[in-house]
Hints:
GO terms for molecular function: ATP binding; ATP hydrolysis activity; ATP-dependent protein folding chaperone; unfolded protein binding. The protein has 557 residues and is an alpha+beta fold. It has three domains: 238 residues, GroEL-like equatorial domain (GROEL, domain 1, Orthogonal Bundle); 75 residues, GROEL, domain 2 (2-Layer Sandwich), CATH 3.30.260; 141 residues, GroEL (3-Layer(bba) Sandwich). The protein has a six-stranded mixed sheet with strand order 9-14-13-10-11-12. Strands 6-16-19 form a three-stranded antiparallel sheet, sandwiched between helices.
Amino acid sequence: MAQQQMGNQPLIVLSEDSQRTSGKDAQSMNVQAGKAVAESVRTTLGPKGMDKMLVDSSGNVIVTNDGVTLLSEMEIDHPAADMIVEVAETQEDEVGDGTTSAVVVAGELLSQAEDLLDQDIHATTLAQGYRQAAEEATEALEEIAVDVDEDDDEILHQIAATAMTGKGAESARDLLAGLVVDAVQSVADDDEIDTDNIKVEKVVGGSIENSELVEGVIVDKERVSENMPYFAEDANVAIVDGDLEIQETEIDAEVNVTDPDQLEQFLEQEEQQLQEMAQKVADAGADVVFVDGGIDDMAQHYLAQEGIIAVRRVKSSDQSQLARATGASPVTSVDDLTEDDLGFAGSVAQKEIAGDQRIFVEDVDDAKAVTLILRGGTEHVIDEVDRAIEDSLGVVRTTLEDGKVLAGGGAPEVELSLALRDYADSVGGREQLAVEAFADALEVIPRTLAENAGLDPIDSLVELRADHDGGNEAAGLDAFTGDTIDMGEEGVYEPLRVKTQAIESATEAAVMLLRIDDVIAAGDLAVADDDDDEEMPPGGGMGGGMGGMGGGMGGMM
């Protein structure tokens, strides 16, 4: 309970149930929470990182070493820890890889800051020093980055393979890296690359080596009638964003029938409408029609008579990919369907894959939407391969967009650490200590790589520093042999943006936590939307007690 003396009467500001942690206790609590999050994923880093098994209350299991998956699925019950989780989520959204590195760096920045706080260095001084160091680090990374041409398939393959190293897909990473690069290059436009145009179809059965890339779209549906053909060659494709059914009226209505002839006329009228719908599809010249909604049984019959393959209840995401792949223009009704709305595919066929029937739309003129078929022995294996592929797609996309890469294996971090120590000499005041702490924090990446590989981290770091001092900017740690090697020659590359984003996000999160000196249990906080300035409800803010906060402060997980 916070109170202030007014005369002889205390002025009570917070309710008696409120919980408050102030000063160094608040800082220490937040730092410990951030370090705990980083420590929970640290052993997953690198080619010899270990996996984690997550089990929920229902017994569902996820086996992964993907940082963002681990952190987003864990039950984390601490407000400061959640801020570190956001670092991983931002990294995933922006780049697609480097989530574990970003979180580990954020945790180490907090750990280094803890020592300086104990020496009575003010938190705002630390924050200023960290910001200066991050800015200098970003500029230094730009200087050592290597330009990559969008046609340089070799480096793109190496980048895709590096992103899969240490994950479940590693056993077939050369094959998968080739598929990823081909997929991203296929969907690349002049102005942007949208990896949503790459559909990943997971099929349990076979091995990872059976994975393949289909230049076109696979729809997880079957044709609606057995009387329809299995295969259409040089097919005109129609996409209907609606139903092929009799439309019901907007209002409830009853039809009173007084004799059987009227009923027969009513049914004939419905049948005629459905026949006209099928005829309009045929008249437009369509060989295949993909429908967003349902298709009436009678409409199915007439479409089959015309030799048209029809597929119903197609997801909107599949429809947009079909449109992009075939060049078809979706229409809301068959009444609007014309020959100009049709797309083209050299082959549309229903095929069986791992016991399930799917529609394959292939041999399109210019495949701007493709499908990766991922195979694996079990569901858990294939889920982890899928996560590795998502990371790999992200880094190849980022490389093609930015055209700059860095050597991996801890090389950029050691180079930055040396550059920042030189830079610290030019920084006046106590901020110099923060810059040096930042330099030390970056070395957590090569140190962790060495620890996870079972190597001596001190020996490895000393050797790396010596090589970088000698001018080898690409010197990194080979986790398999323990040697310091040229990562460029070894083909271990990462996009520049993976490192810059990780440093920027980690710094911002660490600075935000360090500047907090008071944690107060609040009532229901009204968080305003970007475009909606919502007012705080009565009794909100500091008046209420947030009961769960106490548990969160005591232990994160």
